[in-house]
Design goal:
The structure is a single chain. By secondary structure, the protein is an alpha/beta fold. Helices cover 46% and strands 11% of the residues. It is built from eight helices and five strands; from the N terminus they run H-H-H-H-E-H-E-H-E-H-E-H-E. A five-stranded parallel β-sheet has the order 1-5-4-2-3. The relative contact order is 0.13.
């Protein structure tokens, strides 16, 4: 055993370990001399949220129309008197045409107006993309479709699927890259949204040229 340890810990590695201990001890002494300030700095660093300013771009007329439609749907007084307002809003466009930009601004506008917003993505990569570009707001949540709707692959059948009740808290659902959603997940997502009693606004963005 001794021979094995001596082979694993050379003199250089032991020296590096010694300096690690020395650095930690020096840090501990510094913190103990000014504990309050150190704790305050640590809390400030831990709670730091990078600013993500939203700048209004030069919208096209189609983009303005989508934003106006979403705003009008959210401001409706009685959804039962306007059955057409229960239908999802479909937004199509090629890559780079500004679909994501519209969704981000729609989310921010709705959140600032007091509405609860959930952005749902088919992949974790897209979730990260939206987290990076969407301002932090208590009324905005960003999740994958599987996480938000509690869908587990190769689990219960569609008939046995029970959507989570927490979806009832959201007034606006924004779904991007819908062309990447496979059929079983799309079916459960449809069930989850159609069973919500308050008839939230649903926006679906996709590139119709993709499979």
């Amino acid at each position: 055993v001794y021979t094995d340890l001596s082979m694993r810990f050379s003199a250089e590695r032991c020296d590096t370990f010694k300096w690690h201990i020395h650095a930690k001890w020096a840090l501990l002494r510094k913190l103990s001399r000014d504990t309050a300030a150190a704790v305050e700095d640590a809390v400030r660093a831990w709670n730091y949220v990078p600013s993500r300013p939203v700048v209004e771009p030069e919208w096209s007329e189609d983009q303005r129309a989508v934003l106006r439609t979403i705003g009008a749907r959210l401001d409706r007084e009685d959804v039962l008197q306007d059955p057409g307002s229960q239908k999802p809003i479909y937004m199509g466009g090629d890559p780079g045409t500004g679909k994501s930009e519209v969704l981000v601004h729609a989310a921010v506008r709705a959140a600032e107006a007091g509405h609860k917003v959930l952005l749902m993505m088919p992949t974790g990569t897209l979730v990260f993309h939206y987290v990076e570009r969407t301002p932090t707001h208590p009324n905005i949540a960003i999740e994958t479709i599987h996480s938000a709707t509690v869908i587990v692959r190769a689990n219960d059948s569609v008939v046995m699927y029970a959507p989570p009740s927490r979806l009832r808290r959201y007034d606006l659902f924004l779904i991007d890259e819908a062309s990447q959603i496979d059929d079983p997940v799309a079916q459960r997502l449809r069930i989850a949204l159609s069973e919500l009693p308050h008839h939230p606004v649903v926006v679906v963005a996709k590139d119709y040229r993709q499979l």
